[in-house]
Amino acid sequence: MTQMSDIEIAQAATAQPIQDIGAKLAIPADALLPYGPTKAKIDYGFIQKQQSNPNGKLILVTAISPTPAGEGKTTTTVGLGDALARIGKKTAICLREPSLGPCFGMKGGAAGGGYAQVIPMEDINLHFTGDFHAIGAAHNLLSAMVDNHIYWSNSLEIDTRRISWRRVVDMNDRSLRDIALALGGPGNGFPRQGGFDITVASEVMAIFCLATDISDLRRRLANIVIGTTRDGTPITCKQINADGAMTALLKDALLPNLVQTLEGTPAFIHGGPFANIAHGCNSAMATTTALKLADYVVTEAGFGADLGAEKFLDIKCRKTGLKPDAVTIVATVRALKMHGGVPKDQLKGENVDALKKGFRNLERHLQNIAKYGVPSIVAINRFIQDTPAEIETLRELCSAMGVKVIECTHWADGSAGTEALAKEVVNIIENTPGNFKYLYEDSATLWEKTRTIAREIYRASDITADSKVRKQFEDFQKLYGNFPICMAKTQYSFSTDPSLMGAPENHSVNIRELRLSAGAEFIVAVCGDIMIMPGLPRVPAAENIFVNEAGQVEGLF
């Protein structure tokens, strides 16, 4: 029998009416704002009435450093959520919305896979409820109003050479990275250099995902710094008078989206900042709402634990008061062997020695999570080629660290393949109380915070920066010294060199530049050659996506 693709599995599923999904969390039908029969937003008034409810237990799913062999973090998040529901727990899942850039590029979508998916898969991976379009429109409205202010008067004396606010589009388009604006004569404005970032790298996206309510959203939007005057005085969105209109564009988008898994578990999919650029977590509104409605909430943070989990714990938790009760780290034998030096085309054969060598990557992530005082467990996303000797070796290595390993087969078996993981996670939460703490204090300087992340999480010897960037540290310290640091670096390595797999030590982390996100309330430290506008690969996934005669989308993965 031919194996069905992810999208074929999703399209063959019989979805429950979204009102029935809401009822599992005691959300009445009149508090749901449907976008068709299988997806809805949740009414703001209903959310406000739930704030006195006690919080459920929060489970963070993260992973080892990603490899081309794949890890399956989103799939495991969905599988674990389904399994918790399977064993009788009132459960909700919180995920990010996928970006169109990776969907049409090389990475593909982000709705899980196999029999551990959220549906409707094609809607979620494409336009969904229009949230990203609203975020892009709000961002670009501010861009337009900045240039309009300069065109008509420039009474704020904005230095056009120092405008930091770019434009965005939710697409991988390398030709837009650096462009010339306002060409064609005086009627088009004052020519200057500009460019586009991908929407998920927008500060508006970061603000959207950290805002706790509509008032907090407007406050944060108002604080966005778009550039400076000639003497370096910051100019804010509020001074451009754009924050009100931007909030209006985002009013409906801010409401969390409710969908379901293949097994009918409620899933909140909302917001989607990139984890190698921004903080890589779904919205605070979605997570906090889920915690008021469910006994167990499973969420994920983007890429490996050195990026997504670190930012979840040091930024999202710091800004929202959230405290995870357990962390699940996803790994595959295949990926660990790649970290041990085995090429992708040679992963099928048993190689215990390479697994032991590659285990250093998982070991490093486990050590890092322990620094936050949160208990952890390892979920092995098992492939059919994994041998008993490899699994047993991995179990022994983790056992020596006091960490349990649970094999998972959710891709093929759905919740039945993660039931053992769900039971062990519940056991950990009930019997291993955590003592959550941040990696650094607010009172540390921006330089000290950056160096702490580099030394403690990446195991670097130190950070470096040229005189221009050091001056940025000094200038930002005066006004924004209490902000956390959001590291922008490659996801493929603990270092800034994506080719250094495994667990490199004593490397140097060069800070190429600092970017102020005054509305999101963090400082982005850009390391290495990280791109905020990706390009498409030689053969983009878009070439294989089409609509068949039945009106169904094919080719998404």
How do the strands and helices of this protein lay out in sequence?
Blueprint: H1 6-12, H2 18-23, E1 32-34, E2 40-42, H3 44-49, E3 57-63, H4 73-86, E4 91-95, H5 100-104, E5 112-113, E6 116-119, H6 121-125, H7 131-152, E7 158-163, E8 167-169, E9 179-181, E10 192-194, E11 196-198, H8 203-210, H9 214-222, E12 225-229, E13 234-236, H10 237-240, H11 243-250, E14 257-261, E15 266-269, H12 284-293, E16 296-300, H13 305-320, E17 326-331, H14 333-339, H15 352-370, E18 376-381, H16 388-399, E19 405-408, H17 410-413, H18 419-431, H19 446-457, E20 462-464, H20 467-480, E21 485-488, E22 508-517, E23 522-527, E24 546-547, E25 553-554
Parallel strand pairs: 3-16, 3-17, 4-15, 4-16, 8-11, 17-18, 18-19, 20-22, 21-23
Antiparallel strand pairs: 1-2, 2-14, 5-6, 6-14, 7-12, 9-10, 12-13, 14-15, 22-23, 24-25
